[in-house]
Q: What sequence folds into this?
């Protein structure tokens, strides 16, 4: 299968270690590295590695280059656009501090397998406890949906918010995960460090305006996941979560993350309900994404107006 891997970075040592760790696994894939600097500040080797920086974003996107945020992992959105242009079977994104775990199955093959598995969710519920009344089908009680995105998880350092990381460092609590399909109508906390998705989702998979010049950061993937799940439910797709997992080494600072997360915490309490309230009519990811972009423009504040424009400009890239 044709696979493209997208990785944002600002750390030469991290990305060099990343490429070395994944060299065999990604031998047949294209690896797109988006360096979050104005120019390339280091060299990357590998016939299958493409290395981009801010100058490439400016050159290719011209007057709409501003929609790709800088000094944030959301710069990876440019990598999604470049990956989409290659017409792959699916796209994977990872953080540069994620390394492979020992596994019996190839990491990319596992993501591809999960994307190929149809999701099941309950279509019928009984009106009684402990018994099933007349009218409930005996067997056909679930709906099956094709998968649009597989949300891979992590070992070593989980994707907690900064406050939880601080608590965990003093009072660690065990956690576990399993393969699952998120029900229709439910949202999930989408972490961008280990995702696989089909290219048709890319017009609606834009990591939002975060970082330098904006009041919010570290919610680009979370809020993008809410939007994508809303559209997937409407169009009849499912989202899986679980394996394949990666080894997350965590190169970022918990104190820096705490400062970045704080402004968005209150907004995060209501963002999902704003998206949930949008009545979608579109028949493609791009059409639905524009509908949500226009709805978000009604939120008070200059950020939401600018975000709406950015989301619409993102969608237009896929009509060129």
A:
């Amino acid at each position: 299968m044709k696979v493209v891997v997208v990785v944002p970075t600002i750390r030469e040592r991290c990305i060099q270690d990343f490429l070395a760790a994944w060299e065999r696994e990604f031998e047949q894939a294209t690896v797109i590295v988006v360096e979050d600097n104005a120019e390339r500040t280091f060299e990357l080797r590998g016939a299958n590695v493409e290395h981009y920086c801010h100058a490439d974003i400016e050159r290719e996107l011209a007057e709409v280059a501003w929609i790709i945020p800088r000094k944030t992992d959301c710069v990876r959105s440019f990598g999604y656009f470049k990956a989409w242009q290659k017409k792959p079977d699916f796209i994977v994104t990872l953080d540069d501090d994620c390394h492979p775990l020992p596994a019996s199955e190839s990491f990319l093959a596992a993501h591809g397998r999960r994307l190929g598995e149809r999701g099941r969710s309950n279509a019928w519920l009984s009106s009684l406890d402990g018994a099933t009344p007349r009218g409930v089908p005996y067997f056909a009680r679930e709906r099956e949906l094709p998968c649009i995105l597989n949300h891979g998880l992590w070992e070593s350092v989980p994707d907690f918010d900064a406050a939880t990381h601080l608590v965990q460092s003093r009072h660690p609590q065990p956690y576990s995960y399993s393969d699952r399909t998120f029900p229709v109508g439910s949202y999930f906390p989408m972490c961008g460090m280990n995702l696989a998705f089909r290219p048709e989702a890319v017009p609606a998979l834009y990591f939002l305006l975060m970082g330098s010049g904006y009041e919010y950061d570290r919610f680009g993937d979370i809020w993008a996941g809410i939007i994508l799940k809303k559209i997937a439910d409407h169009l009849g797709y499912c989202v899986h979560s679980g394996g394949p997992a990666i080894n997350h080494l965590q190169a970022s600072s918990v104190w820096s993350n705490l400062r970045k997360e704080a402004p968005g915490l209150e907004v995060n309490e209501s963002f999902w309900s704003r998206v949930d309230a949008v009545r979608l009519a579109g028949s493609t990811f791009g059409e639905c994404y524009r509908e949500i972009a226009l709805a978000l423009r009604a939120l008070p504040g200059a950020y939401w107006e600018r975000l709406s424009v950015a989301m619409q400009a993102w969608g237009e890239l896929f009509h060129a």
In short: The two ends are 26 Å apart (CA to CA). The chain has a mean pLDDT of 96.
